[in-house]
Specification:
about 350 residues; two-stranded antiparallel ribbon; two-stranded antiparallel sheet; 14 helices; 4 strands; about 5% strand
Length: about 350
């Protein structure tokens, strides 16, 4: 006869449960913390005018972070998004101002077609990233670092380093209306924010409710296992990088529209904000885990932090340092959360009767 002795609940596991919950809610906690701090520390931080400006900034970072989330979840990284922002803006500016030379004639596209071409330019760079990674087996870090320079160089070459100014357009050529994209309001809310809602809801649905979304997570969790189960890994990787380029092109168009000008250096270091927002929102740098909702909240944290520091007069150099610290801290906390979840699961398993 044998006795089955039930192991008492581990004190460590019981103590870890509240801490694990706090780690899971870290993005919400960070959002409330920075919002409350700057509402007292920065003058007029909660004014309607500043909130509208900040909503635009948050939206721009959120677009990039949404695309970055899919890339990181699949096990990759995209350093080229900032350069795609600059290139897509220059494509739009060049088409509006100079058109397309065709021998002795010049073809001018309507603004909707200009927007489509600029978006395609971002998707093309994303496709190049995907091809380098899937066909030539170049590491994502190296591939996207290379296209970062290529896209930025192409943006500079398009205007010899100068700006495309006064993108108001010419009525006789049918190129007017571009500034509406970045300045229009609907129901008192910037059009940029409505576009973010559209893209964010679509991306969240894709990630959580579609076979494609599940396959992206599967590739990030275990690429070999996903491939053996029938997932077309290369196609998934192509999609996430093309989608990331598409999101970056949206940002380039919005910024050029807001400024009514295109500059080739627009978007420099934007990739840092995108990575910070995604990681802070719970996306694991090792792949396989992340949510669009968390990423958008992370974008709010980064946006509020950036605007609040500007309003307090903090040097841009220190702002860069702080963003770097945020990225490191987010990755460290993510690793702590993962280890605690694994240990907590082992403790619960050990508590079951023998």
């Amino acid at each position: 006869m044998s006795l089955a002795i039930k192991r008492p609940a581990s004190v460590a596991a019981v103590g870890e449960a509240p801490l694990l919950l706090l780690l899971k809610l870290r993005t919400f906690i960070a959002l409330f913390a920075v919002a409350i701090y700057f509402s007292f520390a920065a003058h007029n931080f909660l004014s309607l005018e500043n909130l509208l400006i900040m909503s635009r900034h948050v939206a721009l970072n959120a677009f990039l972070a949404i695309g970055m989330t899919f890339v990181i979840v699949s096990g990759g990284i995209d350093l080229s998004v900032g350069s795609i922002v600059g290139l897509s803006g220059m494509v739009a500016g060049g088409l509006i101002l100079n058109g397309i030379p065709l021998g002795g004639y010049t073809l001018y596209l309507s603004v909707p077609l200009v927007i489509v071409v600029a978006l395609i330019s971002g998707i093309v760079i994303g496709a190049i990233n995907g091809l380098l990674i899937t066909r030539l087996n170049v590491a994502p870090f190296i591939a996207t670092l290379g296209t970062l320079y290529i896209a930025r160089g192409a943006a500079l070459l398009s205007s010899s380093g100068s700006t495309f100014p006064n993108l108001i357009g010419n009525a006789s050529y049918g190129t007017t209306g571009f500034p509406v994209l970045g300045s229009a309001m609907w129901l008192g809310v910037p059009l940029t924010v409505w576009l973010l809602v559209l893209v964010g809801v679509g991306a969240a649905y894709l990630a959580a409710r579609t076979p494609l979304g599940r396959q992206i997570y599967a590739v990030g969790c275990n690429e070999r296992a996903a491939q053996l189960s029938g997932v077309r890994v290369n196609r998934i990787k192509m999609f996430v990088y093309m989608f990331s380029g598409f999101c970056a092109a949206i940002v380039g168009l919005i910024i050029s529209s807001e400024l009514v000008a295109s500059h080739p250096m627009t978007g420099e270091t934007f990739e840092l904000n995108a990575i910070a927002a995604a990681v802070l929102g719970g996306t694991s740098m090792s792949g396989g885990r992340g949510k669009i909702g968390g990423t958008i909240i992370g974008a709010f944290v980064i946006g509020i932090l950036s605007d609040g520091l500007v309003m307090m007069g903090v040097s841009s150099f220190w702002q860069t340092v702080i963003k770097g610290v945020v990225i490191i801290a987010a990755v460290v906390v993510d690793q702590v959360q993962r280890r605690m979840q694994q240990r907590f699961a082992l403790e619960k398993q050990a508590e079951k009767p023998a």
